[in-house]
Predict the structure.
Amino acid sequence: MAKSGTPSRVHEAGSPRSIETRRRLIDAAVATLQREGFARSSARVIAERAQMNQGLIFYHFGSVTNLLLAALDDVSAKRLERYGAMVDGVDTPDELVDAAAAIFDEDLDAGYVTVLVEMIGGASSTPGLGPAVAARIRPWISFTENSMRGVLGDSPLAGLIPASDLAYAVVALYIGLEMLSHLEGDRSGARRLAAHAKDLSRLASALIGPAAEAT
Amino acid sequence: MAKSGTPSRVHEAGSPRSIETRRRLIDAAVATLQREGFARSSARVIAERAQMNQGLIFYHFGSVTNLLLAALDDVSAKRLERYGAMVDGVDTPDELVDAAAAIFDEDLDAGYVTVLVEMIGGASSTPGLGPAVAARIRPWISFTENSMRGVLGDSPLAGLIPASDLAYAVVALYIGLEMLSHLEGDRSGARRLAAHAKDLSRLASALIGPAAEAT
DNA sequence: GTCTATACTTGGATAGAC
DNA sequence: GTCTATCCAAGTATAGAC
């Protein structure tokens, strides 16, 4: 299980061979989480998709859980980078909400958040997984916080609630929406909400008022 | 729950003996979900807590999943009743938010939502569970919608976004917050948010304006 | 160092006892 | 009708082969 702390017997050697194997396993893990869900993401199933022996997962990652976390890290890094680019140069709530809606849609279509949601769900189902997943969500909260801070400035709303808490709430809402969509196997609820986002951003703009142009 | 459709071999006989057995199993299932999580809520573990043979779960409920759903139904019904009482007689946003905050706290302390959150998580981990859990969340959305509708009246905010969509978002936020708290094994984030709820309700009151007194 | 064949554990479900 | 002893599948992990 390579529980943090244990040096464990994971072989992270950097030989080309090893890197290639790890890559294939991570890709297969991502695909399996997206298409089959956490439930079916067993060593056997993932290995079959990668066309490799399931024992390799334990050799290279120490446990299935670790492989799944590596998979989460992989998509997480890619997404965060992409989001950074999208949010860059945004400085009004209106634009930020537009960017967020675009991100939301892209995620729904591509199934990126699916990986995160499956892992959050899986945490209910795998002893030590919770904290590890929580640690991987933290960067997202920071990212959200920074994105909003620039936009909020020192508006009245900013005085009412700290940006860090607001960011926490936004991420929670995002996760909750994805979770519900996911349960229902139908994203119409979330999409309906996204459609209202624009209306709400106008509301936010009004609340923030002059600050919007100030920054 | 005998999966609607399948006549199955579940014995729902109403003999006192049978009822007693079912009760004990449901109570044990609730306790296990709360204290050990979905992961450890196997037939064997639940049965041991109930001091019964694990085979009884299959005799009375057909499957572990069905027992867990019965457990969810059990707490869900109790909570919904309690919430109804709390929200009854509320007609301003301020009062509603107060009631909601009280509910939120009570839930966090007693671990009631834990059962729901564990089941939502478990859905990632058990093939057909998703839709069944989604169906059990729907009454909560309706409840929220009704609670808010009375308060919103025909205020400007009500014109901006339908009560049904707003209710969906509120429930999603609630679930998301619980989910995050749960992952971190620490509810401080959620509590910090709850502390801001009062501030935000004042904001809402201002937006709704005269309607608050009107109803 | 890399990988495969094999061992062991846990859990869901049922055939049959009371 | 109610319950228990038993079976079988699936999964993780490792001992040992290459």
